[in-house]
Specification:
Elements lengths: L11 H16 L19 H19 L12 H12 L1 H4 L1 E5 L6 H14 L8 E5 H8 L8 H10 L2 E5 L8 H16 L4 E5 L12 H5 L1 H10 E5 L13
Parallel strand pairs: 1-4, 1-5, 2-3, 3-4
């Protein structure tokens, strides 16, 4: 088999013929086709690639912050899903969410599910979360409740971009609990930081029945009512084999 030869080895006439052919095609309007050099969703540089990386990082943080019992949580309620999507899109305008309902109706499950959904969205907004029960929060903020000091602990709760406060209104009401709760909710409200609350009590109840107003005070519920969506969870106690809505 003869060895391949370069165009230059064939002599000036061969090279001239090739160049002439290229010139004729250009004159006829024949141009090279487009080169597809854009990155695919699996390659760096594509928005979807970076969204997936952010989601992986956020989901790892979610798993670390979530108790083992709730690591399979999923936001199945449409209103909870919508709130989570709004937080992922723009936390400054999403507002807060209050899940109410009797014991065992799935409020905490939905709360951790919402955090999971926000993480999975891979938002460009910082994914920093804190989940704490109201009882643990009050214990942390009492004198000598933390080595960091009560004011530093309150500051951390106020500043975290996304906070879950579970079992709001469950502690015995006092001037101190009302003041601490008001400071937390008011400062997060003023900073437009989304908070997810759960409570066994309704925001307001008729006929003098216990509610968050009686447990927390009017000024706290007033703050909640302005920018907080309320979702009533219904159904029987799922821990006893019932199903919640």
């Amino acid at each position: 088999m003869p060895e391949p030869q370069s165009i230059g080895a064939l002599g000036p006439s061969a090279l001239a013929n090739v160049m002439n052919g290229i010139r004729q095609k250009q004159e006829q309007g024949v141009t090279p086709g487009p080169i597809d050099d854009q990155p695919t969703p699996d390659e760096p540089g594509h928005p979807e690639y970076h969204r997936r990386r952010r989601a992986e990082w956020a989901l790892a943080r979610w798993e670390t912050a979530t108790p083992p019992r709730y690591r399979r949580s999923d936001a199945t309620h449409p209103d909870v899903q919508q709130w989570a999507d709004d937080v992922a899109a723009d936390p400054d305008t999403a507002g807060s969410l209050l899940l109410t309902g009797t014991t065992g109706t799935g409020k905490t499950y939905q709360a951790y599910g919402a955090l999971h959904r926000i993480a999975a969205a891979g938002s460009t907004h910082p994914y920093e979360i804190r989940a704490i029960t109201a009882a643990d929060m009050y214990g942390l903020l009492r004198p000598k409740g933390s080595e960091r000091g009560t004011e530093e602990e309150l500051r951390r709760l106020v500043k975290v971009p996304l906070l879950v406060l579970d079992d709001l209104g469950s502690a015995k009401a006092s001037e101190w609990t009302e003041e601490v709760t008001y400071r937390l909710i008011n400062e997060r409200y003023n900073a437009c930081r989304p908070t997810l609350y759960t409570s066994n009590l309704p925001a307001r109840a008729a006929n003098g029945a216990p509610d968050l107003t009686s447990a927390l005070g009017e000024r706290i519920v007033s703050r909640l009512s302005e920018d907080t969506r309320v979702v009533a969870m219904t159904g029987t106690d799922r821990r006893r084999g019932g199903r919640a809505a």
